[in-house]
């Protein structure tokens, strides 16, 4: 059985870790697919499966409309790994709405600094960084499955409708707004 000191020491090392994310300038654009999908969860801190460009825009670190793509080859985002939360609440900031997420088991990222890069560096170092990535290049992210799905009981004649923010909304129907008596 490990001692409490070892556990506390591992926790401190985990919380003091910083992650540097290098983003090429071609991804910092208004029509980035991850930005359009709003692939961002929480609001300072963000979940570790949030997209880095979405974090940059939502946190206000860059303005996607005025970023000088031609002057810089990319951006270096430094995030601190902090104690994860069980539930993340979304918010609307800087033109992007982050999503809510409950029961997330991953890490939490808090953006600390952003630095414009005149050069991304040699291809060898970029390939070395890419080799350390958790998800291999070209693979899609696997979204976590809901827990205890067998305990969910469907309610008959119930329709869940989502609004433009992909959050549950009320559906207007004659049965919801009309008098049900004859």
Describe this structure in words.
This protein has a 4-stranded antiparallel β-sheet with strand order 1-3-8-2. It has a two-stranded antiparallel ribbon with strand order 4-7. The chain has one domain: LCCL-like domain (Ferric Hydroxamate Uptake Protein, Chain A, domain 1). It starts with a helix and ends in a 5-residue tail after the last helix. It is of the alpha+beta class. The protein contains 5 helices and 10 strands, in the order αβαβαββββββαββα. The chain is globular, with a radius of gyration of 21 Å.
In summary, what is this structure?
This protein has 182 residues and is of the alpha+beta class. The protein contains five helices and ten strands, in the order H-E-H-E-H-E-E-E-E-E-E-H-E-E-H. Strands 1-3-8-2 form a four-stranded antiparallel β-sheet. A two-stranded antiparallel ribbon has the order 4-7.
């Amino acid at each position: 059985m490990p001692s409490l000191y070892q556990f506390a020491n591992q926790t401190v090392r985990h919380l003091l870790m910083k992650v540097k994310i290098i983003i090429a300038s071609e991804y910092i654009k208004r029509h980035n697919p991850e930005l359009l999908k709003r692939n961002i969860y929480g609001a300072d801190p963000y979940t570790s499966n949030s997209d880095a460009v979405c974090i940059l825009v939502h946190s206000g670190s860059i303005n996607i409309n005025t970023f000088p793509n031609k002057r810089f080859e990319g951006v270096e985002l430094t995030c601190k790994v902090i104690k994860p939360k069980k539930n993340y609440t979304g918010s609307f900031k800087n033109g992007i709405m982050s999503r809510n997420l409950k029961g997330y088991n991953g890490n939490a990222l808090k953006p600390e600094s952003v630095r414009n890069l005149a050069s991304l560096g040699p291809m060898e170092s970029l390939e070395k960084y890419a080799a350390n990535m958790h998800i291999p290049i070209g693979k899609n992210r696997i979204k976590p499955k809901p827990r205890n799905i067998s305990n969910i009981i469907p309610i008959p004649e119930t329709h869940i409708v989502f609004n433009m923010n992909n959050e549950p909304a009320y559906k207007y129907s004659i049965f919801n707004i009309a008098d049900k008596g004859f």
